[in-house]
Each structure stands twice: as structure tokens, then as C-alpha cells.
Amino acid sequence: MYKWLFLIIITPTILTSCGYFDDGQLNNVGILLEGTIHDETWGRGGYLGGLNIKDEQNVSVLIRENIDTNRKAEEAVQDFARQGVNLVFGHGSNFGRVFDQINEYHSDVHFIYFNGQIFDRNITSVNFDGYDMGFFSGMLAAEMTETEHIGIISAFHHQDEAQGFYEGVQSVDPSINTTINSVNSWYDQQRAIMFFEQMIEEDVDVVYPAGDGFNVPVIRLAEQYDLYAVGYIHDQYEVAPETVITSTVHEVEGIYPELAQMFDDDMLPSGIMNITFDEEYIYLGEYGDAVSTHLAAHLDEVIEEFLETGQLPH
């Protein structure tokens, strides 16, 4: 289910291919990652999205990792342009500011980035609204805790899914104590682990590590301590089936080829696209082994009712 908010102004990895579309406007694709394709979450999703574009569109996809400064981004875009790229993905919110500074110099390139409010005639922001899926995962966490103490380790304090998680816990039982710590980074494992260790001392038994670079390390630590965890970005059931009770999934690898197809068809809007909880691109992952069949069925019913009515439980 899309909510289209049209604020319309009326060393690299190369995935090569053998040709171009003759009847569309897509030539080659460039992808900029703040981190790495090996982070098991956000970066990996961008990489898989690039693979899907290559397979479906028969174009070359160029990927640059660790683009963490404006200068690196500008140099990468210039190199992309020399190689015939006319669709550039910035895999993160920070790329919005960079694209806003350079898009006039690349008028024949369309820029897409994620989770921001900056837009222009050739800039599209795709916003994943994670509040609702965070809410449902929080409901599940509230049902699974035995110590009545749950922990959230978010990358930043403003994350929709973290806020939704907290509200979901409260909707089940307002007396549950929820500790929230923000790492102020998507990738600072050391700081995230420090918060996790503090939570252990406070008797937290369910933790939600909502950050690209630290959620898997925290999940593995939770497994060692026999605690529960909620996965982030990808379905992380396989990381620790008895520990991960569910995951808040952003299906970024699926939205990439759809956006590329829209651009090829000259139907990609400038402005902001909001993607909401719809069980296609934003959804809860597989339930963990510790989640009872009865509890899983109950949550599925709650989600189905939400999809029909648009109303969250109170």
C-alpha cells in the first residue's frame, strides 16, 4: 500500500550487462552506499536491489561502498555520469543534501535517496514509514517479556520504528519498563554493545537493536545471554531462530527494481514517495521458535484488522 505524497515541481563494484533497453529511458544505474554490502542489513539490501535491477532491466549497475563524505559522493556521481549512468540511488538519508547541491550540474540524471524531505525536479525521496511495523513488533515483545523490562537500542532518537515499538509495548501493558538508548550512528557497534551490556544489568530480556551496523552483533550477544531480540531491515530469523522473535523488515531489494522500472517508463515522480506497512515492502518477518502458535495467530489477526481498517489497537 503506497501513500503517494507528490510534492511535485509540475575500489567500485560493477554489475555488468550486455546491453541497454531500446524503448525506455533507463541507461545505466549507480548506487551509493554509506557503508558496505556486507553489513547484513541496509547495505546488503541496496546491493541486492542492484542485482535485481541488473537482472530485470538488462543494464549495468555500478556500486560504490563507504561513500561517507560529500566529496566522495560528488566524485562518484561524476564518475557515474562518465559511464552513462542516468539513475543514481543514494542508499540513505544523508544523500539528499548531497544531491540537492549537485543535481543542477547533472540535469540528465535522476537521483533517488531514502528517508528524507529534500526534493527537486530530478530528486525523489522514498520514505519507509516504519512506525506501524514497529508497533506490532513492540506488541509481540510485550507478550514475550518475563522480567517486564524491554530495551530499545536505536541508531537515532527520531526513528519511526523505534517510536512505534515503544507505543506497541505500551498498548499491551503500560506498566512494562522500556529503556531507550540512541547510538547516534547507524554503525557504532561498540556503543550499541555498551548499551546492551547496561540493559543486561537492568534485567532486560527483550531487546530491539534498530541500527544497520550493530543489530546482528547485538542479536548474537542476546543469543549468548538467552534473551529475545527483534531483527531489523532483513528477516533475521536465521541468525538466531530461538532468539529472534520477529523482524521489522524493509524490503529495499524489492523496491529498487520497481523504482527503476518507473524511471524507464518515465513515470517516476519528483518529490516524496511514502511507503507504508503493507506486507509487501514493509512487514514483520518470520516468527521465532519461541513464539507460540496461539500468540502468532493472535498478532496476525491484529495485523489483518489493521490492514482492513487502518486503525491500530489501543
Architecture overview:
This protein is an alpha/beta fold and 314 residues long. It has nine helices and 14 strands. The protein has an eight-stranded mixed β-sheet, sandwiched between helices. Strands 9-8-10-11-12-14 form a six-stranded mixed β-sheet, sandwiched between helices. Helix 7 links the parallel strand 10 and strand 11. The longest helix is centred in the C-terminal third of the chain and has 17 residues. The N terminus is likely disordered.
Shape: globular
Low-confidence stretches: 1-22
Total tally of structural domains:
2
First-residue to last-residue Cα separation: 22 Å
Indicate the CATH class of the largest domain.
Answer: Alpha Beta
The major β-sheet equals: 8 strands, mixed
CATH hierarchy: architecture of the largest domain = 3-Layer(aba) Sandwich
Strand order of the largest sheet: 1-13-7-6-5-3-4-2
CATH superfamily of the largest domain: Response regulator
Structural class: alpha/beta
What is the third-level CATH name, the topology of the largest domain?
Rossmann fold
Radius of gyration, taken over Cα atoms and rounded to an integer in Å: 20 Å
Helix fraction by DSSP (H/I, runs of at least 4): 25-40%
Mean pLDDT value: 90
How many helices? The count is 9
Give the SSE string: EEEHEHEHEEHEHEHEHEEHEEH
Number of strands: 14
Strand content: 15-25%
Protein name: Transcriptional regulator Med
Family: Belongs to the BMP lipoprotein family.
Keywords: Cell membrane, Lipoprotein, Membrane, Signal
Membrane topology: Lipid-anchor
